[in-house]
Design goal:
- Keywords: Antibiotic resistance, ATP-binding, Hydrolase, Nucleotide-binding, Transport.
- This protein is α+β, with helices and mostly antiparallel strands.
- The chain folds into two domains: 1-80, P-loop containing nucleotide triphosphate hydrolases (Rossmann fold), CATH 3.40.50.300; 87-200, P-loop containing nucleotide triphosphate hydrolases (Rossmann fold, 3-Layer(aba) Sandwich).
- The protein contains six helices and six strands, in the order ββαββαβαααβα.
- The strands form two sheets. It has a four-stranded antiparallel β-sheet with strand order 2-1-3-4, with helices on one face. A two-stranded parallel ribbon has the order 5-6.
- The radius of gyration is 17 Å and the shape is globular.
- The two termini are 21 Å apart.
- The structure holds adenosine-5'-triphosphate (ATP).
- Adenosine-5'-triphosphate (ATP) binds at residues 23, 28, 46, 48-54.
Length: 200
């Protein structure tokens, strides 16, 4: 879909080649080719149920396609350790599947481990905590840093997820349903995203 050459690790951050996705008898995606180069900004637009979130689940190294290949940051899914790959991807997912009641600060810190839950025995460094606090302030959540996930509003969760997505200085930043972020938060996160991609 772009002029970027597939497999060009230096300039291609994401490459989907002839990807299909099937669940049961239902063919959800078929024959998807998508190549995204470093520094490019893309928007996926389509009707409800078209498969946008499913494509983002491949791009974020969360879900394997039924067939076809997915290369993320020069690494082929199925041939790399997914958690290591996820640490380089910022994914703002409105269906963030957190089960425990981590605080905002802890959720943001899971961006460093590439996990949903806080890993057993993992302790962030003082520098990492300071970075989390800075991002929490940037998304306007400082007064909620100790609040548990379960009591957060949808908008507050969205802000926390933006900070989580940015904390590891990702090489690939994905927003699912960015319209859940309103006003200044959205603008701030978008500017961060733009700065990052221009610098990459
Ligand atoms: N694991 C699954 N099992 C069965 N069906 C699935 C699964 N994952 C996705 N689907 C179906 O695939 C279709 C595409 O879903 P997806 O969430 O990717 O759409 P979308 O384009 O993001 O939609 P929306 O704009 O409504 O968020 C939907 O009909 C959904 O029900």
């Amino acid at each position: 879909m772009t002029g970027t050459k597939a497999g060009d690790v230096d300039t291609t951050v994401l490459n989907l080649n002839d990807v299909t996705f099937r669940r049961g008898e239902t063919q959800i995606l078929h024959g998807i080719d998508l190549s995204i180069g470093r520094g490019e900004h893309w928007v996926l637009i389509g009707p409800n149920g078209a498969g946008k979130s499913t494509i983002l689940s491949f791009a974020s190294a969360q879900v394997f396609p039924t067939s076809g290949t997915v290369d993320i940051l020069g690494q082929r899914m199925g041939r790399v350790e997914l958690q290591a790959l996820r640490r380089h991807i910022g994914h703002v997912n409105p269906r963030h599947p957190l089960r425990s009641n981590l605080s905002v600060r802890e959720v943001v810190l899971t961006g460093l481990t590439g996990t949903i839950e806080r890993p057993f025995r993992w302790e962030p460094s003082p520098e990492e905590i300071a970075k989390a606090e800075g991002l929490i302030a940037e998304v306007g959540l400082s007064s909620r840093a100790d609040a548990g996930w379960k009591i957060l509003s949808q908008g507050e969760r969205g802000r926390a997820l933006v900070a989580r997505a940015l904390i590891a200085d990702p090489q690939l930043l994905l927003f699912d349903e960015p319209n859940m972020l309103k006003g200044d938060t959205y603008r701030a996160s978008y500017l961060q995203c733009t700065d990052f991609k221009l610098a990459a």
